[in-house]
Amino acid sequence: MRIREATESDFDGIWPIFSEVVSAGETYAYPKETTKSEALKIWMQLPRKTYVAEENNQILGTYYIKTNQGGPGNHVCNCGYMVSSKARGKGLATAMCEHSQKIATELGYKGMQFNFVASSNEGAIRLWNKLGFDTVGHLPKAFNHPAQGYIDALVMYKWLKA
Question: At what angle do helices 122-130 and 92-106 cross, to 10 degrees?
């Protein structure tokens, strides 16, 4: 498996993953009916950089990195990660998060923040904790999960510079 910077031509390989994750409505606060052109803008054009994790020339996962806030907060980045259901449990999310932290420091970021982690996303929460992220905020009933109803969302943060 290798992780490389994505180009817009990679979006045809990213779209099935994006569509699968977003249409499930369980982890991202994007409308379930997000179109391919909207997704292209969200995932490829608005972030500072987008990466893909691939094996045998097949995209299995993707992440973006962007500045979380402007001005005095521009030293903190935000990332979003998606893994194809066919590739889950193989360590892709771990590899992408570790890669994103390296890229973040290369880009001059000093902290990384996840703004809206659904509390039902226990695997991601466990992983982010294992990789040194702290839960710094709880947003009560902020995420409307399709099966569980209104659940909490978490704000998670890691200072990248010692």
Answer: 50
Domain 2-159 of CATH type 3.30.2090.10: no
Residues 61, 52: Cα–Cα separation, whole Å: 6
What is 29-65 written as a DSSP string?
-S-TT--HHHHHIIIIISSSEEEEEEETTEEEEEEEE
Distance CA 158, CA 92 (A): 20
User: Model-level pTM?
Assistant: 0.95
Note the pLDDT of residue 29: 94
Q: How far is Cα 82 from Cα 61, in angstroms, rounded to an integer? A: 6
Model confidence pLDDT, tens digit, residues 59-96: 999 999 999 999 999 999 999 999 999 998 899 999 99
CA-based nearest residue to 156, from 131, 49, 140: 131
Residues 20 and 128: their CA atoms lie apart, in Å, by: 22
